[in-house]
Each structure stands twice: as structure tokens, then as C-alpha cells.
Amino acid sequence: MTIAKPTNDEYGAFYQGYIDHVIEEVDILGTLKNQRDEWVKCYESLDEEKWNYAYAEGKWTMKQLLRHVIDTERVFGYRAMCISRGDQTPLPGFEQDDYIIGAEDDVNTSQDLLTEFIQVRNANMSMIQNLTKNQLQKTGTASGQKTSSRAIVYILAGHMSHHMNIIKNRYNV
């Protein structure tokens, strides 16, 4: 499924870096699926010690990073659904660090988190696959910024690419 890259007026400037991670006119569902598989392979290769590794003081552990990705998938999936349906209710932002603290993931196993990630990404892919061209072009407001459903799809893919680059370059995985 090819979705045209969103124009600059379809998202807030903050998201430009994520959008730039995705090639123009990409098979977005293929990209999302490949990212899912790459993340699963990466995390399945970790021993428990590496799950709890942070590359610097005050940085997230690999486990916390996966939680952040799960939370972001949920939030942006919800935003895409609302906006694609024509909902004009302004959608709030979310404070990623507060979400990490509030997750209380010490009780969750590594496999619990990996399973949750797979399920959330699969749900988002299913929703995206069923969006029409008209729904992808709809806009709403998220985090105080005009945002299109199509931009959210690209932000999801770009967000994952961004964090995989961090994993490879800073976590040395």
C-alpha cells in the first residue's frame, strides 16, 4: 500500500525529523511490517541484562525504550483513527517520560512487552490498511498542531526508524 508522503502543512514542525526517516512513496504497510519484524528480532536477541541496559545515566533502558514505542504506537494509532473518522476534537499530547514512570513495567516480563508491541503494531497496520484515500487526507488537531491521518502513518514509521538508529548507535545492539 503506497501512501504519498505528507506535505509540510499536514503536521507540526516537531515531527519533521520522523517524516524525513521515510522515503517518498514508500509501501508503508511493508515498511511497518519490516520494522515490526526487525524490532522483534532485535529484542529476542537480548539477554535479560541487556533489556535493563541504558547507554548513559538518565537514559531509558532497552525495556523502557520498548515501552515508549508501545505507548507511542497506541497514542498515534488513536490519533489516526480519530482524525480519519473526521473527529475534530483537539487531541492531547502526551509526556513520554511520565508515561514510562506510570507504566510500572517492573512486573512485566520481556516477553509480555514484546507480545504487546507486536499486537499494537499489528492493530495499527490493520487499521491503516483499511483507511481510504479520503480518510488519509483528513486533518484534525493533535498536540495543538494541525495533523493529517497520512502524516501520522509516516510519523509512526519514522519514529520507529529513529529509535532503531539509537539502538544501533548508542545501545550497540
3D architecture notes:
It is a single chain. The chain has 173 residues and is mainly alpha-helical. Helix content is 60%, strand content 5%. It has helices at residues 16-20, 28-44, 48-51, 62-84, 96-103, 110-129, 133-137, 149-170, and strands at residues 139-142, 145-148. The protein has a two-stranded antiparallel ribbon with strand order 1-2. Strand 1 and strand 2 form a beta hairpin. The protein is globular. The chain starts with 15 loop residues before the first helix and ends with a helix.
Describe the structure using short key phrases:
173 residues; 8 helices; mainly alpha
Which strand order do you get reading across the main beta sheet? 1-2
Largest beta sheet, briefly?
2 strands, antiparallel
What is the count of β-strands? 2
Output mean pLDDT: 95
**What is the helix/strand order?**
HHHHHHHEEH
Tally of contiguous helical segments: 8
What is the helix content? 55-70%
Strand content: under 5%
Could you give the distance between the termini? 30 Å
